[in-house]
Amino acid sequence: MEYHKRLRLFTSFLLMALLLDACSFSVQVLPTAPSSPPTLASSPPPVMETTAPLILPSETPTLINISIDMVAWLEIFKSFGEGEVLRSVAFTPDNSVLASVAGNTEDFNIHLWDVASGESIGTLSGHGGIVWDIAFSPDGKILASVSSDGTAKVWDWDNGELLKSLDFPAEVVNISFSPDGQILAVSGVDELLNQVQMAAIWTFSVNSWQPLIKFPEYLNISVMAYSPDGMILVGGGTSRNIQMWRTSDGVALFTLNHAEQVGDAAISPDGSIVATATCETVLNTECTEGSVWLWNLSTGRLIKRLAGFPSIVTRVAFSPDGSFLIAGSRTGMLRVYATSDYEPRFEATSPGGVEALTFSPDGRLLASGGANGEVHLWKVVYRP
Prior knowledge:
This protein is mainly β.
């Protein structure tokens, strides 16, 4: 009898355990898939278990490539920084950090920002004058800067360490790494020659920091760009000319003549077009109409003028995928042209004007800024 009571009791406990086990399953929740444009391939959403704490979505959702098909949804989603005129911005190759310089008389620092949060992650101090331009090396390990103090400085930016300081005859205003990262090019004002103010681009070996080829010009070189294959270097601006040199030996190939000074230049990703930012119409020394001039890189011939800006065009940039050209004016107008026909497709306004403009290397962010020292980050906000 006692045996049967124990057997029934054991069986009851066994059934209860089985029932509890059957009821204690983990619930799986499939998050609602975000709306995505029809041109993008959608991937299966991840499965999240409620047994672990849910991590809220980051402030910045998954970014969409800024192509000509998506540019109509381009919006500012984050602004940060303050100071005087924003001079230059640059992304690290992995798109995670943005460097900026903004100042006229007081702020000579290089500011580093976390792109995801917009929070400051430090500054690099050492220049004694306005920092005009900055550039990350293609491998992202070093950051280079140029200043009115007549130096170019090379930084291990991640550790805040100054690696090298290069001295020049006068202010230097533009800096760029060759596409392969082996050469650093620095442009600015050179010494007087027969009462003529000379200018130059100086190039250096990144491995040894020894000087290589010097590319001569006049007055100042505020504009400089490498072709994607690194075989052509363009530079100039203040003289109203843009020179095109062969990088292997410094031979001048073409001179691109403009009616007014040139504020910026960009070469298309396929290496076929040079876009220059300039002024189309001047009235009483003021630029009343800005424009972008398009040149054939292989022949040096003017192809087309894209006019109709309310003030001088200060910055131009091709999208990394090559599908469009964006130009910004001093009053803040941003205008996008499809590279298929160079017809306008989109317009927007960058608060404070446009003195700095660049894409993230992956083509999913655009950074702009101007007179108020703020950096504005743009992304595609798709609303089907």
